[in-house]
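W.,

You were right to be curious about this one. When I first looked at the sequence I had no strong expectations either way, so I just let the prediction run and decided to look at it fresh. Below is the sequence, 180 residues in total, followed by the output.
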Amino acid sequence: METITNLFAQSGQDAYYGEPVTQLEHALQCAQLAEKAGADEETVVAAFLHDIGHLLPPELAGGYMDGYGTVDHEKLGADYLRERGFSEKVAQLIEHHVNAKRYLVFKKPEYMARLSEASLKTLEFQGGPMTPEEATAFEANPYFHEILQVRGWDEQAKIPGLPTPDMDYYITLSERVSRI
């Protein structure tokens, strides 16, 4: 957990690309929303760490999205956490939260109208809406519903100054979950 804590210490106060909150505020709000919804601990931790790929060192990044974060941050973050002993469920929820956006834009055109300017911009880098074949394959993921939940919390977790539990609270939870 020390490396995850250090990542947040180094980059957690950076702006959350195009949004009015920091990386850490976004992570804490997302986890809090998951917790308030009654999600299990693995899902809460996935919500907390879903954007960890944006905090990884630049040498691990495959490129950047014109000031909107790291290309493939979801895959980088999932692989990073797998290497540190997190469950496949946590990794899958993180790895597919971008696919959830692509899916929802394909499946529900009104969803696109609700996306922030930053989410619309990153969608261009992330492949745009899914194809019908991609959507069918995505729906077969055993964590499909939880992935969509993480996406919803991701979209909501952008409120400046919102009180949340502190980072240590979710780091402790993450440590417990990584040992499951």
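Here's what jumped out at me. The mean pLDDT is 90. And, maybe more interesting for your project: Residues 39 and 146 are 9 Å apart (CA to CA).

Coffee later to discuss?

I.
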